[in-house]
Amino acid sequence: MILTKILFLGLFVELSAAACTTKGQRRAWHTLTNTDKLAYINAELCLMKKPAKLGLPGAKTRFDDFQAVHQVQAYLTHYVGAFLPFHRALLSAHENALRTECGYTGWQPYVYWQEQRDTGNFKKSVVLDPTYGFGGDGSGGKCITNGPFANYTNSLGPGYSITSHCIDRQISEMFSGWTGQKDVDACLAKTTWLTAWPCIEDRPHGGGHSGVGGQMSNGVSSPGDPLFYLHHTWLDKMWWDWQAKDLTKRLKEMGGTNIMPDGKPAFPPRPNTIPKPTGAAGDPGTQTTMTHILNMYGNSPNVTIADVMDIGNDLLCYEYVEP
Length: 323
Ligand SMILES: [Cu+2]
What we know:
Layout (H helix, E strand, L loop, with lengths): L2 E6 L2 E6 L7 E5 L5 H16 L12 H10 L11 H20 L7 E3 L60 H4 L4 H8 L4 H20 L14 H18 L2 H4 L42 E2 L8 E2 L13 E3 L3
Parallel strand pairs: 3-4, 3-7
Antiparallel strand pairs: 1-2, 5-6
Helix pairs in contact: 1-3, 3-7, 5-6, 6-7
The structure holds copper (II) ion.
């Protein structure tokens, strides 16, 4: 919550800078009208045309900026307690940019991919439609050849590297099979944060990334494919659905390691060419706490995990609509 104190007639009055009155409604992609699908796609294309402004290495466009914020700290935002909170903050920042920088002010602000619908069958998903979606599979595991993002030159990745390349995909229905209702239900049934978060990060998270393949399967540079945002919004909904089962308790339930454990080869350590977070970031100790700082690298003010626990608060102000 952002509070401004002003002196008014000798009294301190606290004003909320942005009180949440109307919550943004996040909807499943397949429930949108074609007009609304195109509005989202066009806003993303707009971010791809605007120049980068964070000064992060290699980033050329505003779309790249969000990928860069993920890339430079991938090693400290995965397989740690901050995994879901960090991505919640990143999604919200991306959503704000679509709205405030690219005029995306339609009746609904953001979307998720209801992956249970397409589990084991990503190739047929309406999300990959070439006209009203994100385009299809890569050709021979390489560049996507159709859809609105086929001609985008991505400046970051793979991994921590900085190279120019296309958006590539290599769909694997073996991995897409990890995104089914059975796997979602298994995570929602977990009774503690320390079991629910790793469950979500394992099969549903890994299944969507590796099911799409290519850039999406690279844990460091995956936001180079705009599908990243629909996939992670689905995971964010999963976390919220889990929280909502026992809201009072789970709005405060956090924890887990703050330092990535050894033996996670998908996340190589940060190379020296990648800038370290400026100022305070993370937790001072080895455990993830509510005061853990999520670093946005100047894209938006840094927030704490406590700030992103409740999606209906003044900072986030959204809700999920069931398909
Ligand atoms: Cu990530």
